[in-house]
Amino acid sequence: MDKNKKYLLALAFIIPLLLIIYIFQINSHESVKGNITVWADENTYDYLSKIAKEFEESNKRANIKVVNISKEEYLDKIKDTEEEKLPNIVHLDFIGINDFKDKIKIVNETNEIIETYNKNFNKNRLKQVECDGQYMGVPLTSKPMALFIREDILNKYGYKVEDINTWNDMFKIGVEIFNKTNGEIRLFSKKDIDNLKLLISAEIMQESNNEKELKANIEKNIKSIFSSELISYYGDSNYVARISSLEIIKELNEELIPGKWICKLPPSINLGANKFYDLGGENLVILNCNNDNIKLIRSFISYAATDIELLQTQLIEGNMFPSSLYTYKDKSLESKVKNTNIQGSSPFVIFCNISERAPILKDYKLIQDINSKIIEEN
């Protein structure tokens, strides 16, 4: 075979191959082309706007508009907007998903994202977005709950962090410190009332099988929290402990609150009971889609929920706690928080352990309903 024939055969093989690659690339880009709108609030705008810009850089034919809406107006804006004018993507917590169930688009793409990335999320968070075997959204943030306690105040009045294992231990020490300081120092900050109510309710629910008994125990414990001896309603620093998720990290790093703090697992109702609780978070939800933009919507939600590098940055900066479990597999999470756990594990490590090990809550909606009823009665 002469050289010319060899060249012709080579070209006959290479040219179709190049055409196939070219067509595939065109189709790949076309699959994520289009325009979509995402609504964020002040807690999520920084991340969603950055992730949208990063996504657009890799997908030149995609245009993602991220709109910042105040947290106070966010749900009302969704409620009052006509269906055809709704954004493509919003974020909602468990209660929001239930409130707007009729507006949410149940599409195969949401199920496909969860099926593809299900090991990315803990079972509790997946359960919160599931309804009748379908997924209503994709978890974006989580809310693992930890105890932050001022070791300097405990030591000053004769206590140690190790003395606190159950809520009864906690309340007893709180009342004693209140009495020893003539009411100057209370146990909790008013900032954490909602966290306290939800965490104690979740713990009681996991320990109870009788709904009537459950409601009575929750009401009894929640009402006791409102005792004037336990909650600091005035002043920014006259309290011993915080029950918090990531909200406290910025306050500590910016030294907005004084003292030497210890971050540890929260107390339990009974000695030896579970202390790992993730109380929900925000989920990316589809409200508006069509055949022209659904591939872009699916691709963007997948990207936003699993972009490890940017999610880690948000976590370390204390902006949001990602639901993606793979976010936690990094040495950067050993970063210290000012005046906290000087010799122990970083709070980030503790939060991550809580999120990974949190069990499925039996009935999160019932917890919310009981707490709402108690608030109305008070």
CATH architecture of the largest domain: 3-Layer(aba) Sandwich
Largest sheet: 5 strands, mixed
Q: What Rg is obtained from the alpha carbons, in whole angstroms?
A: 25 Å
List the total number of helices.
15
Helix content: 40-55%
- Which regions have little confidence, pLDDT < 50, spanning 5+ residues? 20-30
Structural class: alpha/beta
What is the N-to-C order of secondary-structure elements (H for helix, E for strand)?
A: HEHEHEHHHEEEEHHEHHEEHEEHHHH
Strand order in the sheet with the most strands: 9-8-10-7-11
Fill in the keyword field for this structure.
single chain, 378 residues, alpha/beta, D-Maltodextrin-Binding Protein, domain 2, five-stranded mixed β-sheet, three-stranded antiparallel β-sheet, 15 helices, 47% helix, globular
Explain what you see:
By secondary structure, the protein is of the alpha/beta class. The chain has two domains: 33-143 and 280-329, D-Maltodextrin-Binding Protein, domain 2 (3-Layer(aba) Sandwich), CATH 3.40.190; 146-275 and 344-377, 3-Layer(aba) Sandwich (D-Maltodextrin-Binding Protein, domain 2). Helices cover 47% and strands 13% of the residues. It contains 15 helices and twelve strands. It has helices at 3-31, 45-58, 71-80, 94-99, 108-117, 123-128, 151-156, 167-180, 193-207, 211-225, 247-253, 294-306, 308-316, 347-357, 364-377, and strands at 34-40, 62-68, 89-92, 130-131, 134-135, 138-139, 146-150, 186-189, 231-232, 239-244, 261-264, 283-286. The strands form four sheets. A five-stranded mixed β-sheet has the order 9-8-10-7-11. Strand 1 (34-40), helix 2 and strand 2 (62-68) form a beta-alpha-beta unit. The longest helix is centred in the first third of the chain and has 29 residues, at 3-31. Residues 20-30 have low confidence and may be disordered. Keywords: Cell membrane, Coiled coil, Lipoprotein, Membrane, Palmitate, Signal, Transmembrane, Transmembrane helix. The chain crosses the membrane at residues 7-24.
